[in-house]
Design a protein that fits this description.
- The radius of gyration is 17 Å and the shape is globular.
- The longest helix has 14 residues, at about 25-40.
- It has 8 helices and 8 strands; from the N terminus they run H-E-H-E-H-E-H-E-H-E-H-E-H-E-H-E.
- It has about 230 residues and is of the alpha/beta class.
- The chain folds into 2 domains: about 55-115, Rossmann fold; about 125-230, 3-Layer(aba) Sandwich (Rossmann fold).
- Residues about 1-10 have low confidence and may be disordered.
- About 35% of the residues lie in helices and about 20% in strands.
């Protein structure tokens, strides 16, 4: 039987993620059921009307793979003058973020549970974003799996279309080789310029919350690398 998202004779799309559905708490489950109609976005394959989605025309920042949503919620509370759109495929994380949205009374967050590649391709229009956040994506460390990494030249080229002039791309990883790959791939696109004076990495900015995942990595002795590029 053909994959549900492919037609006979077509290749199955390469995913940058593996869907591992962890255990959901009752609170996460209730948040999904009760709050999704208000803050969730059901994608129908057509470009999103972001002003209609948020009820205003404030600049929009997109975070891909927000995990449990703690960092996104903190940033949304810190910067109420911006709208924040999050993409995550794992239901427990989505449920947790929805709970935080209600708990903190955040009206500037909307959530998608979709493949980010499809949203970037079909769901967003030119110059519709003020910036993008991508923190600790799967590094796919084995060389044969590098094609699954989300950060590729085509990905960066699409960001150059979606992010308006002066907007930013902020990425972070705790995998040194992937960090260098990210740096090289962003630097190779003339639409972006590196905000680091030496053309390399930056210390973690104060407005990037330290994630639970990152704290665990620090306890294990892992490093982390931040990149901040600006759209010319």
């Amino acid at each position: 039987m053909a994959d549900a998202e492919t037609r006979p004779g077509e290749h199955r799309p390469i995913r940058s993620f593996v869907l591992r559905e962890g255990r959901m708490t009752e609170g996460q489950r209730q948040a999904l059921e009760q709050l999704w109609p208000r803050f969730g976005v059901d994608f129908n394959g057509k470009p999103l009307d972001l002003p209609a989605l948020f009820g205003n025309s404030r600049p929009v920042y997109l975070e891909i793979g927000f995990g449990n949503g703690d960092a996104l919620a903190q940033r949304a509370a810190q910067y109420p003058e911006y709208n924040h759109l999050g993409i995550e495929v794992h239901r427990p994380g989505v449920g947790h973020l929805l709970h935080l949205i209600e708990q903190q009374e955040l009206d500037n967050v909307r959530v998608l549970r979709e493949d980010a590649a499809e949203i970037l391709r079909d769901g967003l229009t030119t110059d519709s974003l003020q910036g993008l956040y991508l923190f600790f994506p799967d590094p796919w460390p084995k060389k044969k799996h590098h094609k699954r990494r989300i950060v590729q030249s085509a990905f960066v080229a699409r960001l150059a279309e979606l992010i308006r002039a002066g907007g930013t791309v902020h990425m972070a990883t705790d995998w040194a080789e992937y960090a260098q790959h990210m740096l090289n791939t962003l630097a190779a696109n003339d639409a972006f310029e590196n905000s680091a004076p030496d053309g390399g990495f930056l210390p973690r900015p104060d407005d990037r919350p330290l994630t639970r995942f990152e704290r665990r990595g620090q306890r294990l002795g892992h490093g982390s690398w931040d990149l901040l590029f600006r759209r010319r």
